[in-house]
Design a protein that fits this description.
- The protein is mainly alpha-helical and 1385 residues long.
- It has 63 helices and twelve strands.
- The protein has a four-stranded antiparallel β-sheet with strand order 7-8-9-10.
- A hairpin with a 2-residue loop joins strand 3 and strand 4.
- The N and C termini lie far apart (103 Å).
Length: 1385
């Protein structure tokens, strides 16, 4: 081997004189000799001496003077074979001291070259880099084979000369030169090249390139992190170079430094504990990675950030980027880079590309090798790295300039946890670092390290600045992101063994940490914050609390909900500072309504209690009793004198009382048995009676000792102890009769009601006046409104629980208050509608520049009209009380008769009519206001949003309106139309149906009125309201088709409906499956198809609407939309779970059932009624029903759409779906109609055969006749019917073919029954016998679609055409000439 190297190096000629002398000395296998001995023999032969050298001096001289210069000649290209020969002489250790000679020669060449050729000549670096690289390669190959373990030399490579040379290259040379980077990569990566001190120095130099990029970053947290990193080195400070490089070179140097250090982790790990470079290097790596992974407005890093943030940065409805605050974007990177480096803006454009390259170099951070490196660090170093990186994350969240998304910052935290945590306890310690207290976080709760029971202390009474609230929302979003990635149990409970998201943290030691890391304070903080960027408490924290209560077998799970409730109870009762006159809590409040609650702590408490008790949770009476006896002692309530605190307590009681009043039942043999309460067990009756007695004693005249405020306070508490059922009506009365309320409580409640009635009748008392909002009367007004609301709540409770005890005077008082409250509400609502209508009329005559100011005027007027909102609680209770009284008459037999007689004596019948009229006027008035504001989207949204603040009121109004009589609705509609405000009652209903912020109950009520009598006949087209007189006149005026009339005119559909029916396909089909636009679209078509179904066949009104569908693409768009919701796959993939398959099968069966039902009944009302709350399943059911109805009403439209489908698999699935669920019903109906049709003409007879799906028409005219058989397909009406003649007599072949084709055309285009198509065909044939000429285009006398006659004649050839055929001919031929004579038409 060595001989081959020598020959290849010196050439065969150089060894021709040496070969024989070597053989004479017995050297036959040169590869068995060491390089040193061979060099000795070569020296002997070359000098002509026979004796062996006694000294190594000559050998060293040969090595120094000949072999080194010859191998390392800088004037010639570097040859690896020469370098291998040179290094082979160090293998046996005899020439190890000559390594310095090699270095001296190389470094001497460096000095010579620098003096002669300048410092830009890097030839000596090339040589040194090649030598070191060859050493590393040789060492790696020997380490891999281990065949010559004795030859693996750990010396002589480490040398002060080499240390100095490598350090010089790192400090003063260009890192971008390949030899420089190669030398540094090998020197740092190999543990035997450099000494420990030199290696640390080189790493420090390379590290400074990374640190410089952080210091020049635009991000304040990145610059701060550079300072924190440098503090780890004996509080040293970084000195910026005097002469800065261009930005592109800074990026390239940093990239090379990252590559070198990233590939040298194993070597760096062996440095030991003497230096902190490991800590600083790791933190710098992560900070550099995070700096690149961010959205930025600067040129230097914008493009790379766009790639990272395409999933995170979304636009809100107003076009602002969520989580990115552009007005606060720092410009430090732009200024620092441009000023220090002297770069221009064009030169900064390269930053994005450099960032991408740098990001690729940092990919090693995601490897298993790097994970192993981080976890093998010394504990002190690992903890230091965690602390610095946690500070960086917190600084990015809490800093003044926030440009990072919470998801990305959350990913930073996951990087820390996944790379540095070795067990579950380590994870919790890291979370404590990330969630530690800071100014601005937390603001609602604070952490105490004394003991777990006092871990949270609520803060209140502070006026928080906007900036602090913003920081709190950022941190809440950050916590939500962590909980979503690591598991809520890990974050909130500290239970490491319970999360199923530990796959990214493999290798953890699973242990149960108990309650050491329970963070109830964090749950409280998120509940009080309630909403943050891309999340809220409803979607994250509240479901977690429900999950905790559902796991009763885990004692640790229940601790957090109890701690949270305890914190919120104390905080909510102490933080109430103002009166909230919202007292109506009868109807079940949704979580989105809780959002409007003023006090954050009470909002959090209310949302938590509603979640744990009302939303199908496992908490019931036992938990309610525990909370009641713990937080509602009578003595504590006596010490409270603030009405706002009392109101808070009453709202909490509204949630707990339904469970406390519910009787315990036990199922025995399928029969529910009421469990008798334990007499020794403390009950709530004692407390309730005491509160009622306190309210009675406080209810004195104004001249008494008790103040009005104290009377209201105790009345509020007492009334809240009588829960009201959310259904209203008779359901409330029945629920109250079965509640666990004692006779004493009822008697005290009646006494309290009667005392309030007497006080209200006293001189000086007056009803609420909500029109004076001056500063001096504001507090008095709020108190009056609140007291009136409490009185309304007292009346509602007394009617529900004590109505059998009511006397005539009691009923008179109730009805009078009820009527006054409703009248006041109607006045407010109609004044609002008039104000909006007046503003709309002003806008119609104004120019464009004034439109914005007019819209602002509308907004101001609506804001002033919010005085109606102050009385909404009264209106809600008034409507609720009205439904209660109506429910008394619907109770079963056995109800007391005397109270109902007393009610009748109090003029209930007269009040009922007027009250119902007021409620319907209230219903229409809010629709009229939004309809009048429809000219401006913003103004209409203000109206609809204003309604959302009064959801309970409008739900009650909608419920009562739905149960109103037809006569009452007709009267209210006529009154609204005569009133002349807005665009009429129909437009008002459409405004409620298609509102931008709809309320489900109002939507359903509006749809119900528009689709039923008396409004359904005028809801689609401009026609008068349907009455018996109008209906009879229409029957006379609209018989079977008048062939001479034109039915191709405009269908005259109402603009509100037409705008939704004609929604563009792009807008509709690309929207979310549960978007409001889709819901409105499906509701609009439901109305249209329902109306079409109700019209008499072959009438002009129906034919105009059918023609409207045929002339537009809307039916095709509708069908495309429907089958985006209808799943055609009846089985899931094999990999899907059984549970998912079962759920999918159930949903498909429900959709199939709805389609079948709609096809059979011709109604989709059942599907619309079950649409709310809107979910994918409910929309799919409605879509199936609409498809079934469309097959029944517009079969030709469906057939044309189906024929145009290009996807065969979809077409096959649709055909299978139709034939299985809809076709049987439609076929049965068709054959029933054929059998039921009455043919007055003796020339035609029709008969049907259901088993063969055939209809036979026998036609005879004079001497001619024929039998036509029509065969319907199994997937009717998707496929065309088959028509054939089985017998003909006296009819020519041409005429027969024409008649069969015309019959097929009528059946193909007929949107009605088969019998109707046969009758139309028969009239067509009769006209032919009468001598009427056929249309030369369609070869038919009666048009197959609109049933018109040819009436447009050519002036030249005199042939007549159907208008529809001629229009189609002009549009397809692109010319306006006669189809026959080609004369201009």
């Amino acid at each position: 081997m060595l001989l081959a190297k020598l020959v290849s190096t010196y050439g065969p000629e150089a060894f021709s004189s040496v070969k024989l002398p070597l053989q004479s000395k017995g050297v036959t296998a040169v590869e068995d000799l060491s390089a040193f001995k061979l060099l000795n023999l070569v020296g002997e032969v070359s000098s002509g001496r026979d004796a062996e050298c006694s000294s190594y001096t000559d050998i060293r001289d040969i090595f120094r003077k000949h072999l080194i210069p010859w191998s390392l000649n800088a004037d010639r290209p570097i040859e690896s074979s020469k370098l291998e020969l040179l290094l082979s002489f160090f293998e046996d250790g005899n020439l190890t001291s000559e390594w310095d000679s090699v270095l001296s020669y190389v470094l001497g060449e460096a000095d010579t070259e620098d003096e002669a050729k300048g410092s830009e000549n890097l030839k000596w670096i090339d040589i040194l880099a090649a030598l070191v690289d060859l050493i590393c390669q040789k060492k790696n190959s020997e380490d891999g084979s281990r065949n010559r373990s004795s030859q693996v030399i750990t010396g002589p490579w480490q040398s002060p000369r080499l240390d100095a040379a490598v350090l010089t290259v790192a400090q003063n040379r260009n890192l971008q030169h390949p030899s420089c980077s190669q030398l540094l990569r090998n020197a740092v990566g190999d543990p035997n090249i450099l000494s420990t001190t030199a290696k640390v120095q080189v790493i420090e130099v390379l590290f400074n390139h990374i640190l410089l990029l952080l210091l020049l970053s635009e991000s304040s947290w990145a610059r701060q992190s550079a300072e924190w990193i440098f503090w780890q080195k004996d509080n040293a400070k970084f000195h910026q170079p005097q002469e800065m490089k261009p930005l592109v070179k800074l990026f390239e140097d940093a990239r090379i430094a990252v590559d070198i250090l990233g590939n040298s982790l194993a070597s760096i790990l062996q440095l030991g504990e003497e230096t902190t470079v490991q800590v600083r290097l790791l933190t710098a790596f992560f900070c550099l990675k995070w700096t690149i992974e961010k959205p930025s407005s600067t040129v230097s890093m914008r493009n790379s950030a766009d790639d990272v943030f395409e999933d995170y940065e979304t636009e809100s409805e107003h076009g602002e980027a969520i989580g990115i605050y552009h007005d606060e974007l720092p410009q430090t990177m732009l200024h620092n880079s441009a000023e220090v480096t002297g770069n221009t803006e064009n030169e900064l454009d390269v930053g994005s590309e450099c960032s991408s390259i740098l990001s690729a170099s940092l990919k090693f951070l995601d490897t298993k090798e790097f994970l192993s490196f981080c976890r093998r660090l010394h504990t002190v170093f690992r903890k230091s790295s965690q602390k610095i990186l946690a500070q960086c994350v917190r600084y990015a969240l809490l800093g003044e300039s926030y440009i990072y998304c919470q998801k990305l910052v959350g990913q930073w935290a996951l990087d820390i946890i996944s790379n540095f945590c070795i067990d579950a306890e380590d994870v919790q310690d890291t979370l404590n670092l990330l969630l530690a207290s800071e100014e601005g976080w937390p603001i609602w709760a604070e952490v105490s390290s004394i003991e777990r029971k006092s871990i949270c202390i609520c803060k209140f009474g502070k006026v928080l600045p906007v900036k602090t609230m913003e920081i709190n929302k950022r941190f809440a979003g950050f916590v939500d992101t962590l909980a979503g990635s690591l598991g809520q149990e890990l974050i909130f409970l500290g239970q490491s063994a319970l999360s199923d998201k530990y796959n990214l943290l493999s290798g953890w030691e699973v242990k149960n940490l108990g309650l050491r890391y329970s963070r109830a304070w964090l749950v409280v903080e998120l509940l009080c914050t309630w909403e943050w960027n891309e999340g809220n408490a409803i979607k994250s924290v509240l479901p977690f609390l429900r999950f905790c209560t559902n796991n009763k077998h885990e004692s640790d799970f229940n601790v957090v909900p109890l701690d949270v409730i305890e914190i919120l109870f104390h905080g909510a009762f102490k933080s109430c500072t103002k009166i909230d006159n919202s007292t109506f809590n009868v109807v079940k409040v949704q979580h989105d309504e809780v959002t409007t609650t003023g006090e954050p702590l009470f909002r959090a408490l209310q949302g938590t209690l509603k979640t744990l008790f009302e939303d199908n949770a496992f908490w019931g009476r036992a938990e309610a009793e525990s909370l009641f006896f713990k937080y509602f002692p009578v003595e504590e309530l006596k010490s409270v004198s603030c009405i706002s605190v009392t109101n808070t307590a009453s709202k909490v009681l509204d949630i707990l009382m339904p469970f406390l009043r519910k009787k315990d039942t036990v199922e025995m043999g399928g029969i529910s048995t009421v469990v008798t309460s334990d007499e020794n067990k403390p009950g709530i009756e004692k407390f309730v009676c005491q509160w009622l007695e306190m309210a009675l004693s406080a209810s004195m005249s104004p001249s008494g000792e008790k103040t009005e405020t104290e009377s209201i306070r105790w009345l509020t508490i007492a009334v809240s102890c009588f829960p009201l059922n959310s259904s209203g009506g008779a359901g409330t009365i029945l629920a109250a009769s079965t509640s666990e309320v004692t006779v004493k409580e009822k008697s005290l409640l009646v006494a309290l009601f009667q005392k309030q009635r007497l006080q209200a009748s006293m001189p000086g008392s007056h009803p609420v006046a909500a029109d004076d909002f001056s500063q001096e009367n504001l507090q008095t007004l709020v108190l009056d409104l609140y007291s009136e609301s409490i009185l309304a709540k007292l009346i509602a409770a007394a009617v529900a629980y004590c109505w059998p005890e009511f006397e005539v005077e009691d009923w008179k008082f109730v009805l009078l208050r009820l009527y006054n409250w409703l009248e006041a509400a109607v006045v407010d609502a109609e004044e609002l509608a008039e104000a909006v209508a007046d503003a709309a009329r002003e806008v119609e005559g104004a120019n464009e520049h004034k439109e914005c100011s007019d819209c602002m005027k509308i907004s101001a007027e609506m804001a002033v009209s919010k005085k109606g909102k102050s009385c909404s609680e009264l209106t809600s209770f008034a409507v609720y009380i009205f439904s209660e009284i109506q429910g008394l008459y619907s109770l079963e037999v056995g109800k007391p008769q005397q109270p109902l007689k007393n009610l009748a004596l109090a003029s209930w019948e007269r009040i009922e009519v007027r009250a119902l009229e007021d409620i319907l006027r209230l219903f229409l008035a809010t629709g009229l206001a939004e309809s009048a504001a429809s000219f401006d989207r913003t103004a209409a949204e203000i109206i609809s949003v204003n309604r959302l603040d009064q959801v309970q009121l409008w739900e009650s109004v909608a419920d009562v309106a739905l149960n109103s009589s037809t006569r009452a609705l007709e009267s209210a509609v006529r009154a609204a139309d005569l009133w002349g405000v807005g665009k009429g009652s129909i437009n008002a209903l459409y405004s409620l149906l298609f509102s931008s912020h709809p309320i489900p109950s109002l939507q359903w009520a509006a749809y119900h009125f528009l689709s039923t009598d008396p409004l359904r006949y005028c809801a689609i087209t401009w026609r008068p309201m349907k009455t018996e007189q109008v209906e009879s006149s229409e029957r006379e005026s609209e018989p079977v088709v008048n062939e001479d009339s034109s039915i191709t005119s405009d269908a005259n559909i109402r603009p509100d409906l037409a705008a939704v029916l004609e929604t563009p396909a792009v807008t509709l089909l690309q929207s979310l499956l549960t978007s409001s636009s889709r819901v409105n679209y499906l509701l609009a078509w439901s109305l249209f198809l329902t109306h079409l179904q109700s019209l008499t066949p072959l009438t002009p009104a129906r034919e105009r609407l059918v023609q409207y569908t045929q002339d537009s693409e809307s039916p095709n768009i509708l069908l495309d939309c429907l089958f985006q919701h209808i799943s055609l796959k009846k089985t899931s993939s094999l990999s899907a779970s059984r549970k998912r398959n079962a759920k999918s099968t159930l949903e498909i069966s429900e959709v199939t059932g709805s389609a079948k039902r709609a096809a059979a009944t011709g109604s989709v009302l059942f599907a619309v009624e079950g649409l709310w709350p809107v979910k994918k399943k409910e929309i799919a059911i409605l879509s199936g029903a609409i498809y079934g109805l469309m097959l029944k009403v517009l079969p030709a439209c469906v057939r044309i759409w189906f024929t145009g489908l290009r996807d065969r698999s979809s077409a096959s699935a649709i055909e299978s779906f139709t034939s299985s669920c809809c076709s049987p019903e439609l076929l049965a109906e068709e054959f029933f109609k054929v059998q039921a049709v009455t043919v007055t003409d003796e020339n035609l007879s029709i008969r049907a055969n259901h088993s063969t799906r055939e209809v036979t028409a026998l036609y005879k005219k004079e001497e001619a006749g024929m039998d036509i058989v029509i065969k319907l397909p199994a997937c009717y009406p998707l496929r065309a019917v088959e028509v054939e003649c089985t017998r003909r007599m006296g009819i020519s072949e041409n005429r027969l073919r024409k008649w069969i084709l015309s019959m097929a055309a009528f059946l193909r285009n007929q949107n009605g029954a088969v019998a109707e198509a046969i009758l139309v065909w028969k009239r067509n044939v009769d006209r032919e016998f009468e001598g009427v000429e056929e249309c030369p285009i369609c070869y038919s006398i009666i048009h197959t679609s609109n049933h018109s006659l040819p009436r447009l004649a050519c002036r030249t050839c005199k042939h007549k055409f159907h208008p529809a055929c001629l229009y189609k001919w002009f549009s397809t031929s692109h010319k306006s000439t006669c189809p026959l004579c080609q004369t201009p038409f």
